[in-house]
Write a structure and sequence with these properties.
The complex is a heterodimer. Chain A is an all-alpha fold. Chain A contains 20 helices and 2 strands. By secondary structure, chain B is mainly alpha-helical. Chain B has a two-stranded antiparallel sheet with strand order 1-2. In chain B, α17 packs across α21. Classes of the chains: A mainly alpha, B mainly alpha. Chains A and B meet through α7, α9, α10, α12 and α16 of A and α1, β1, α5, α6 and α24 of B.
């Protein structure tokens, strides 16, 4: 590659990534040369400003023709744009939470927290924009390795150390699975470029490649299931979520999970719809859907039932987040024309309600130095505003009408019923498990409204986390009452057919 | 005006929000905010009602969201049924707001109480003007949330917490039915707008069998909300909430939402004779079943709660027997007299500080307003001629008679007998005889509590005259008048039905009078002329030794049979479902050992199973 080609690339396409990269680099250097005693809080606001700039770049790219640079490894299309918006907003909110995170003596190396968050975000963005298995994997590992360290940033806490350890071991296993699966794909098609793969793969005669391709599919999916924490790769989530600092837990459950769905969609949809399936005129993807459908069902059931037993609020939300990953697989299985819309909207809703809930959890657990659900006792009578916002998040997570979560579930539900073939069994499982989920969400609500409050000490509301909370509450309600605004924007601005080559 | 009907629910919502955010500063003044805003809603509802009568139905709507090719709309609709419901809900809510000012005045969480009331009123008003099922469902759920919060208002009492939870879970079971029914309907018709559903159903777009299934599933939702058998158990427990709440939510409005749902979707039900039978039979069974339980209760609010269940069953029975007007008519009269009875009961409880009717007595002379209004309510619910309940009950009995459901007709008569009996038992025990209360001095409640009762007493007495055989069937003509989907024929019933209903009512009152008022004189009479039905209404406190050994056990058996079914069958099923769910949860947590090796192994085993399946089956799973 000579200089001329390099210069001829439309580098502005990568402006959001560059912004994040620059911020991460600057932060790590400044951190290195600044005295230990200096408060690193400013880093957080600096990072937030950086994400803001990246978002502006991103919005200016909306409507851009699909294009590729760097020898067809980086791709700008509606898919990457729309999901990067979610990743950036999610990371921004997590950063705001992080600025306010004050648990005593826990974050000794606060600077690290900020620039690792940036590098993790950069990895996630690369995953959304990559059009090549190699860069996809590099993005995935950048996100993963940054997250491993983030989970262990409470250096003095054994729980946090344990979380990081478990995360890194399970992550290693999952990467091995993923790579193994990708290597099959490479072996069968002779290319790592997704565009080439999708061309080559349709030429493979079923009698030769079907079994190998099926195994490749299963391996890749199971490996990537780690990132979205679905069965059979969900067991790490509760332990890691519990041990990690709360902003990191929020990051893992929202941004990292969104990135997981992005890579699943990107890889599986670029490769398998074009491979010949078991029967004539079906694709391998359709033939394999039954497996994912079973896994999604088990995930929803496992997540929601085990959550019933939890007293630790972070563990409870870990199981809740497993269950939500199960819901999110439903539109993928249904594979209707509204799939992208349903998944994107649900992820957006999930981002708002889950980060919002974690923001409240952060405030409350810092206040009472505990993570038991009883920390919410009588919240309504101490801080009615906070209790009302938490109620909004819980109602939305439970899928009660008037909130974003309801519209998201409705969307998924209709997609599953009206797809061809109709996935009504999965839709029924989703509805049944949603009803189960009422119990644990309402358990928290009952604490806030129907228990006498334990202490009367004023609850500190730092500015960063308050902004995140209010933004999420407003967003949850807005998307719940006027979903048309966002959906219409989505339908007119993003054309997902661009995703295919 | 009709297109602006959406303003009506907004005022209580505003009250809710204002109290939520500024209530702390306003303290006792909160009640004025609540009363003022619901008062405005009531006024607007009346205007809407008269506009509807003068100009016919109307409404407005707009596109709310588009999913794929499917469109969901949001708006308001005002038909005779909606307009009537608006007035009932806003009026009762307004009166309860006023009443609560006196009843709750010493509660330090008065502001919270009023804000919850506002939330509930908002949801309920919005529910009754929804022009489509999705919107109705949204507010249906919100109403449930409001009810949950208010039942658990005294959360420091364990019973209240348990009751709130139970109410939420039981109604949720019904809601799942409603949701599935809704989805199936949507699948078939392609729209959730009432008008399009009716057009689709009458156009034969839905196959007969499926239509029956849909109607029954929707009815399951109504069963949960309206406390019909077997999902009724939450309603008596819900009496743990403050008494004004019982009057508003668990007597007049929310529990009637199930009846409203069936009425609003009446054309769908009517298209399926099987579904109509289910509605009628479940309603009829509930009517008599709950009435028998009402006979043996000693808690004043529980008697009224079982009575509510029974009366709602009556309404369902009417709808199932094609008595659209009869059902809605009874819904209206019941809202007035049952709200009245609850408010009066609250006034009594407020005065004597107990809910046990055996610790009351002789209050007639001490409560000069509560006593008479309670009597009016009792006369109305018992179906004494010339009071409102008489006309609506008569209409229901006629409907079952003309529909050829003679079994239900007889059940209706028997239930009416029980109703008259247990209501007058209540009246005599509370207001006559000697004072069994521990308190020496009992005073009448304050003005803010008595005025709403007087207004309701007036309505309980006279509201029946808008639909009578003699003075014209204004209500019936109006309700069914402007819809092409609602057939209405008023039955000029045989006079003997009306006579029989009156006689039954008097018989029940008479029996109660003999036992609970003239008790010392009549013991011998009863012991020697024991009618078989008496065993059903037997109560152990007013009979001598002899009866204790002859009929008491039989009477108890019948009276408690209902409680038994409730305790050992219905609740066991509920517990079993919960148990299985919990067991799955424990199994899952056990696997979560904390050993990272286990986690890796589980992932690997999962992968191995999947790969094995793919290879073994060749992918054909």
């Amino acid at each position: 590659m000579d200089m001329e080609t390099l210069l001829s690339y439309e580098w502005s396409m990568m402006a959001p990534e560059f912004t994040i990269l620059i911020i991460a680099t600057v932060l790590s250097l400044v951190d290195l040369f600044t005295d230990k005693k200096v408060d690193r809080k400013l880093f957080g606001w600096f990072g937030a400003a950086g994400i803001g700039i990246a978002l502006i770049f991103l919005f200016s790219q909306i409507g851009h023709e699909p294009a590729m640079i760097l020898a067809n490894t980086y791709r700008l299309d509606a898919f990457s744009l729309s999901f990067k918006i979610l990743l950036l907003i999610g990371a921004l909110l997590v950063l705001l939470m992080g600025v306010s995170y004050e648990a005593k003596g826990e974050l000794l190396y606060r600077g690290e927290f900020y620039y690792l968050l940036m590098s993790a975000l950069l990895g996630a963005m690369m995953m959304a924009s990559s059009a090549d298995l190699i860069t996809l994997f590099v993005g995935l590992e950048l996100l993963s390795i940054s997250s491993y360290i983030l989970a262990g940033t409470r250096k003095k806490s054994t729980q946090s150390n344990e979380a990081a350890m478990k995360y890194v071991i399970n992550g290693g296993i999952s990467s091995a699975f993923t790579l193994f699966g990708l290597s099959y794909i490479y072996g069968l098609t002779g290319s790592t470029n997704l565009a080439d793969i999708s061309r080559e793969i349709s030429n493979i005669a079923p009698e030769n490649g079907l079994v190998l391709l099926s195994i490749a599919f299963i391996l890749t999916f199971v490996g990537l299931a780690f990132k979205i924490s679905t069965v059979p790769f969900q067991m790490w989530a509760p332990d890691v979520y519990q041990g990690a600092p709360i902003p990191v837990t929020a990051f893992l459950s929202v941004v990292s999970k969104t990135a997981g769905f992005v890579i699943i969609l990107r890889v599986l949809l670029s490769v398998f719809p074009f491979a010949q399936g078991l029967e004539a005129n079906t694709s391998l993807l359709q033939s394999m859907m039954i497996f994912i459908s079973v896994l999604a069902g088990i995930t929803m059931i496992a997540g929601n039932t085990i959550a019933l037993k939890q007293r630790n609020i972070k563990r409870l939300f870990a199981y809740s987040s497993i269950a939500h990953a199960g819901y999110l697989l439903v539109p993928f299985v249904a594979f209707s024309e509204m799939m992208f819309e349903s998944m994107w909207f649900y992820l957006a809703a999930y981002l708002l309600m889950n980060i919002g809930a974690f923001a409240v959890i952060q405030v409350m657990s810092e206040h009472s130095h505990s993570e038991d659900i009883s920390i919410f006792a009588g919240l309504f009578y101490r801080r009615p505003w906070v209790a009302v916002m938490m109620t909004i998040f819980l109602l939305s997570l439970a899928g009660i009408p008037g909130t974003a979560g309801f519209i998201g579930k409705l969307n998924i539900f209709i997609g599953a019923l009206f797809s061809d073939p109709s996935r009504y069994i999965l839709a029924a499982v989703m509805m049944g498990t949603t009803v189960i989920s009422y119990f644990y969400y309402f358990g928290v609500m009952a604490q806030m409204f129907m228990r006498p409050s334990g202490s009367a000490a004023p609850i500190r509301m730092p500015v960063g986390v308050t902004i995140a909370m209010v933004f999420c509450a407003a967003g949850t309600i807005t998307l719940g009452l006027f979903p048309g605004v966002v959906l219409e924007f989505f339908q007119t601005q993003f054309n997902f057919a661009e995703m295919f080559y | 005006m009709l297109e602006n009907a959406w303003l009506i629910p907004l005022f209580p919502l505003l009250s809710f929000l204002l109290l939520l955010f500024f209530g702390k500063q306003w303290k006792e003044k909160s009640s004025y905010v609540g009363i003022g805003f619901t008062g405005v809603s009531f006024l607007l509802s009346v205007i809407v009602l008269f506009t509807q009568i003068a100009n016919g139905s109307g409404g407005a709507d707009m596109v709310w969201l588009t999913i794929g090719q499917l469109e969901f709309r949001f708006g308001v609709i005002v038909t005779p049924l909606n307009a009537l419901m608006l007035v009932i809900v806003s009026l009762v809510s307004f009166l309860v707001h006023i009443y609560s000012k006196g009843y709750m005045h010493s509660d330090e969480r008065l502001t919270t109480f009023y804000s919850y009331l506002g939330l509930f009123t908002f949801a309920m008003l919005a529910l009754v003007i929804s022009p489509n099922l999705l919107q109705l469902y949204i507010f249906w759920e919100l109403v449930g949330v409001g009810s949950f919060l208010l039942i658990g208002f005294y959360f420091y009492k364990e019973e209240a917490k348990a009751a709130a939870k139970k109410a939420f879970v039981m109604t949720r079971i019904g809601d799942v039915g409603l949701l599935i029914g809704m989805i199936l309907l949507f699948w078939q018709v392609g729209s959730l707008e009432f008008n399009e559903i009716f057009a689709g159903v009458s156009g034969g777009e839905v196959p007969e069998g499926l239509l029956t299934l849909i109607a029954i599933l929707i009815f399951v939702g109504a069963v949960g909300k309206s406390g019909q058998f077997p999902l009724h158990t939450w309603l008596p427990d819900a009496m743990e909430g403050p008494t004004p709440v019982s009057a508003l939510i668990h007597a007049a409005t929310m529990v009637a939402a199930g009846v409203y749902l069936v009425a609003a979707l009446f054309p769908v039900f009517e298209a399926s004779p099987a579904a109509m039978t289910v509605v009628a039979v479940v309603g009829g069974f509930t009517a008599i079943f709950a009435a028998t339980i009402g006979l043996v209760q000693t808690d004043i609010k529980r008697v009224l709660a079982y009575s509510t269940v029974s009366q709602l069953g009556y309404m369902m029975m009417a709808l199932g027997a094609a008595g659209y007007v009869a059902g809605v008519f009874h819904l209206m009269t019941h809202a007035f007299f049952k709200a009245l009875l609850f408010l009066a009961a609250g006034s009594v409880i407020h005065a004597v500080h107990t809910q046990n009717i055996e610790k009351m007595g002789g209050l007639w002379t001490k409560m000069r307003i509560t006593g008479p209004v309670f009597l009016i309510g009792t006369l109305a619910i018992s179906g004494v001629p010339l009071f409102s309940g008489f006309f609506s009950k008569d209409e229901i009995l006629l409907a079952t008679w003309y529909d050829g459901r003679y079994g239900l007709f007889i059940i209706g008569l028997v239930a009416a007998f029980f109703t008259a009996f247990y209501m007058f038992r209540l009246f005599f025990m509370v207001f006559t005889g000697e004072n069994r209360s521990a308190l020496s001095e009992v005073r009448e409640s304050s003005r803010s509590m008595t005025i709403p009762m007087v207004v309701l007493a007036f309505l309980a007495a006279f509201a029946g005259y808008i639909n009578t055989p003699r003075f014209g069937t204004f209500l019936g003509d109006w309700l069914a008048g402007d819809s092409e989907f609602l057939p209405f024929e008023h039955h000029e019933g045989p006079v003997w039905v009306m006579l029989a209903a009156s006689l039954i009512a008097f018989a029940g009152i008479g029996l109660a009078y003999l036992i609970y008022y003239k008790k010392s004189l009549q013991r011998d009479f009863l012991s020697s002329h024991m009618p078989a039905t008496y065993t059903l209404v037997f109560n152990k406190y007013f009979i001598d030794e002899f009866y204790q050994y002859t009929v008491e056990y039989a009477a108890r058996a019948v009276g408690y049979l209902g409680s038994f079914i409730e305790k050992y069958i219905v609740e066991v099923i509920v517990a079993a479902v919960a148990g299985v769910t919990r067991a799955a949860g424990s199994l899952g947590s056990k696997l979560q050992s904390g050993q990272v090796q286990t986690y890796g192994a589980m992932a690997f085993i999962g992968l191995a199973i999947l790969v094995f399946l793919v290879v073994w089956t060749g992918g054909y799973l």
